[in-house]
Amino acid sequence: MDQASAVELLAPAHRDPAGRRMHPLPVRIMHWINAVTIFIMIGSGWKIYEDDPIFGWLQFADFLTIGRWAQHGLQWHFFGMWILAINGLCYLTYGIVTHRFRRMLFPLSGRDLVHTVNDALHFRLAHEDLSQYNTVQKLLYLGVIMVGILIVVSGLAIWKPIQFDGLVALLGGFQNARLIHFLCMSAIFGFVVIHVTLALLVPQTIVAMLNGGPLVKPAQAVAPRAASSEDELPDPSASP
Questions:
Q1: In angstroms, what CA-CA distances link 148 with 90, 132, 240?
Q2: Which residues of 75-107 are buried (b: 16+ CB within 10 A; e: fewer)?
Q3: N or C terminus: fewer CB in 10 A for the chain?
Q4: Is residue 28 within 8 Å of 209, Cβ to Cβ?
Q5: 78, 47 in Cβ contact below 8 A?
Q6: Higher per-residue confidence, 78 vs 232
Q7: Helix (H, G, I), strand (E, B), or coil: what is residue 215?
């Protein structure tokens, strides 16, 4: 058996012709659960904030909040808190175990960051390949994951300041924990605004989160081209 025939026999064993979806079903389910829960958490959090503002100059209109009064908003907040915490833990576990985070969010490139920012400032961002995140997207997703962890930690300190007194002290006291929690919420709200805006500008990203998006084939799916007998013959036109 020659080399070309051997490659043809071995290639199917290493090739996944169907590939995999950019957004597997578990990712899509967790994404939409997070999307709904985040709005519950932000709206109810603003109602709680109204009862004891951190900044005297900052108030939220009633139509932006969830709950008729602060206690009602707190009940909504606890309801969303458990869903967000459990779903977030599942998302982190899935991303780490399946290596999705490593594939989608790494490596980070400083050069690509400069090019992406420059393209964005000149309205030249390309979206031909939805399966590849640019460095700005990677940093945004990594950042919101870190902020999400911090908002849960600060939320625990606010919720049970006696039981988690060490955590409260680590955050600089109860009022400082409230401030950190509020700033984390503001960062997540900013991320949501940017995320939704970009999704509306590039509608195919919304479709991808509904149907799974394009097929992504593994890097090893392409078998190396076998050298044919013609490749091995010298080129008569080549100079000696």
A1: 13, 23, 66
A2: ebbeebbeebeebbeebeeebeeeebbeebbee
A3: C
A4: yes
A5: no
A6: 78
A7: strand
Report pLDDT digits (tens) over 160-181: 999 999 999 999 999 999 999 9
Distance CA 197, CA 174 (A): 35
User: Among all chains, which residue has been given the structure tokens 């399966």?
Assistant: 131
Please name the amino acid found at residue 197. T
Q: How far apart are CA 176 and CA 170, in angstroms?
A: 10
* Angle, alpha carbons 135-138-140 (nearest 5°): 110
Q: Is the CB of residue 214 less than 8 Å from the CB of residue 139?
A: no
Helices (H) and strands (E) in the chain — how many of each? 10, 2
For 138, 183, 193, the CA distances from 39, given in Å and listed in that order, are: 23, 16, 12
Contact 219, 144 (CB under 8 A): no
More confident residue, 210 or 118: 210
Phi/psi at 215 (5° precision): -75, 135
Go through the chain and tell me how many residues it has: 240
**Residue 84: pLDDT above 90?**
yes
State residue 20's pLDDT score.
84
Residue in the structure block whose two tokens are 């064993």: 13
Tens digits of residue pLDDT in 22-31: 999 999 999 9
pLDDT value, residue 173: 97
What percent of the chain clears pLDDT 90, i.e. is strictly above it? Answer: 61
Task: Please name every residue paired with 215 in a beta bridge, in sequence order, or none if there are none.
Answer: 21
Strand partners, 130: none
Tell me, what DSSP letter sits at residue 221? Answer: G
